[in-house]
Amino acid sequence: MQRILAIQIKRIGDLVLTAPALRRLRRERPDAHITLVTLGAAGQLVPCIPRIDEHLNYRPGRPNLTLWSQLALGRYDVVLDFNGNDRAAFMTFLSHAGIRAGYEKRARKFPRSLVFNRVSDASLTELHTVDHMVALLETLGIDSPDPEPLELVVPELELAKTKALLAGRGIDEGEKFALIHPGTARDEKYWMAERWAAVADRLATERGLKIVVTGGADAGEKAHIEALKEAAKTPIVDLSGELSLLGSAAVISLASLALGVDTAAMHLAGAFEIPQVLLYGPTNPYHWRPRHAAACVVLAGCDAPLTKAEDFKMRVNKHAMNLIEVDQVLAAVEGLVV
Predict the structure, then answer these.
(1) Cα radius of gyration (the chain)
(2) CA-to-CA distance for 150 and 206, rounded, in angstroms?
(3) Whole-model pTM?
(4) For 205-240, how does the pLDDT look when each residue is reduced to its tens digit (9 = 90+)?
(5) Angle, nearest 10°, between helix axes 264-271 and 12-28?
(6) Closest CA to 214 of 128, 274, 156
(7) Is 237 exposed, middle or buried (0-12, 13-18, 19+ CB in 10 A)?
(8) Measuring CA to CA, how many Å separate 176 from each of 195, 204, 232, 271, 294?
(9) Which of 76, 92, 104, 173 is 20 to 30 A from 317, comparing alpha carbons?
(10) CA–CA separation, 66 vs 232, rounded Å?
(11) Partners of 282 in the beta sheet?
């Protein structure tokens, strides 16, 4: 039995967008033992990725002695480094695997060039992030002629807990709600709270949707959500800071509509194929956009929403989020079946 170590120790969104590569790997290597290494809180999402045999988690700021020993004694045959940073390269080196695969751009420089013996020349600039991750499998002779869909599955127990939580906040099972996730790790990707409030009011009055807001416990994010709630006329079910990452995924999977900026929550919505509207300004949606049919992107500086593959370009001008108007977001919602 082949033992495969997959390393994805970047952000939560990166793990979500690596899931298609892991699913294709399982399909092509059904009898392999696959171990996945994740970073911190991102590891909570591993139960949503089917058929991972073993999960190891790197915890920042900790010695991680158990992890290092597990990697050194794991007797892996193959390592797939989806990261390319120094920590992932050290994990690859420590594994002593016979096949150690990484990306050519990150693996060619010394001392990483001593670690990897198979490299992919896939360009992150020219590819969607999902395709970039899947391309690493070509180092194992696994081709992917067609785009690999992004799919995650929330465990039934977590779904049951989440339905009970929502019912306790006035949203019964089967009742439609719009989920707004306004927060982000980068200040320049925030949209104005008062405009989110205007969108929430219109969705409630014109479509009869209840409004749920999710987010983290970060002080800046909480302040932004409080400003949104103060500006909104419709009641807001605020779950920010209350949910685990897995719980957030469960809430998103139950939504009738998801709205947000370029952040991990919207990658999750894409993985569950929830009708969604995403707002982009300082980042390029070409590399990160959802690719299911019920997704629409509003790009700052563009009047019309982006929905088709040909609408997205490898290079776009960066614009401030305040160029996006409320009516643009509502027009994008009009194009979706909710």
Answers:
(1) 21
(2) 31
(3) 0.94
(4) 999 999 999 999 889 999 999 999 999 999 999 999
(5) 30
(6) 274
(7) middle
(8) 22, 11, 19, 19, 16
(9) 104
(10) 49
(11) none
